Amino acid sequence: MFESAELGHAIDKAAYEQEIPGLREALLDAQYDLVASKAFPVILVIGGVDGAGKSATVAALNEWMDPRHIRTHGLSDPSDEELERPHMWRFWRQLPPKGRMGIFDGSWYTWPIVERAYGRIKEARLDQSLEQVRRFEQMLIDEGALVLKFWMHLSRDAQKKRLKKLEADPLTRWRVTDRDWKHFAMYDTFRAVAERALRSTSTAGAPWTVIEATDPRYQKLAVGRILLERLRARLDGPAPAPAPVAAPPVAAGLDGRNVLRSLDLTQRLPKESYERELETWQGRLNLLTRHKAFRDHSVILVFEGSDAAGKGGGIRRVTQALDLRLCEITPIAAPTEEERAQPYLWRFWRHVPRKGRFQIFDRSWYGRVLVERVEGFCAEADWMRAYGEINDFEDQLVRSGAILAKFWLAISPEEQLRRFQARQESRFKRFKITDEDWRNRDKWPAYEAAVCDMLDRTSTEIAPWTLVESEDKAFGRIKILRTLCARLEAVL
Predict the structure, then answer these.
(1) Which domain holds residue 104?
(2) What SUPFAM superfamilies would the database entry show (predicted)?
(3) What domain count does the chain have?
(4) pTM confidence score
(5) Which CATH number goes with the domain that contains 366?
(6) Are strands 298-305 and 327-331 parallel, antiparallel or unpaired?
(7) Disulfide engineering: 220 pairs with which of 60, 109, 145, 289, CB 3.0-4.6 Å?
(8) DSSP state of 310
């Protein structure tokens, strides 16, 4: 893959200076068209060997275009805050919104390539990381992003010459570190790993472009030309059609029954037993949060369920046992303009907690395969691919040390009607009932089918759903606390 980039491309200064004004004008026009359209984000990944002029190329792009509409990220080692979350979190939260560009000098490729080159991870782990990257980039593409990836290549001799030249100049000496020379000594190893990474992640939607970096003028022009060509083609051409997506299969019951109708909603807990068990399980939950191992984990709770199923009451019984300084509740409503300009999961990525914290979602990322699916707020392709994206997201949460518990609170249509009527009659509860709640009742069968699909396709070994029979609120609340304590005890 690198052989074609070792041909000694160069451009003389006169030709460079002659082309630059026209290229800058065209790039600026395309950028302003992008800003005006707010149609999609542009994501540039700039990778390559040490000393290959990556930073100079990024600086040129910021000079040629309006930097107010570009987010440039020079990423090195992760911070303590970033280490306490999934590896991809530091990149998730820095994605540009629609109508903007994001340039990553150092990206999601750096860690797997460096770790494998140093022998700190095996081939299997490298392959897993690269597969995760492929799925991440495909998600960006499916969300409409234009993804451009450039790898700046130098031969071994050219890299040595470049590092010595930088080191000899007092003005650029600071750019060369001991780490750069160490990596140079490992040139063949890094080259082999990088070529493996690029070959396995150069896809139709996000191909790699390998650019020979011996001549800085050629290097900058090549990146500018390709950016202009791809951006102009996207702006002037038809919107890309969504790719067909096959959701994970659902196991259909031969008797026509589904998992929700199989629940025993007649289960009850007497008041005396409820008060005793509430004190017991809240006390146990509080002690678990004081366990010395708790500081190495975060806890993420997802509460979903039918309207008036008791999500708020269940959440309150959990938070009563917690130090509220370590707990945050995020109620999910319709997305804001800022959130609609980002990938669907972005509004949830930003709330991933640090270790030693609780994050509680009152409704969650499952809205895409529930309300958005049933109400037609997104295309079928969007909610079909969401199952896989959600499973990937939850897998990364758990592998980073999060304890994830998902609760579906179930009630019958008759009990929901009774609770709706009680809310309407209570002046201090009337905010809990809306016209939309009544409209949703008319679509009970559609929501029930969507819930069954969701449970089948996203109840995984590491992130299973807990179905909570909430016809009796006391029984449901104790089941939530008991399940949560069991999950924490299993990990701690």
Answers:
(1) 3-236
(2) P-loop containing nucleoside triphosphate hydrolases (SSF52540)
(3) 2
(4) 0.91
(5) 3.40.50.300
(6) unpaired
(7) 60
(8) S
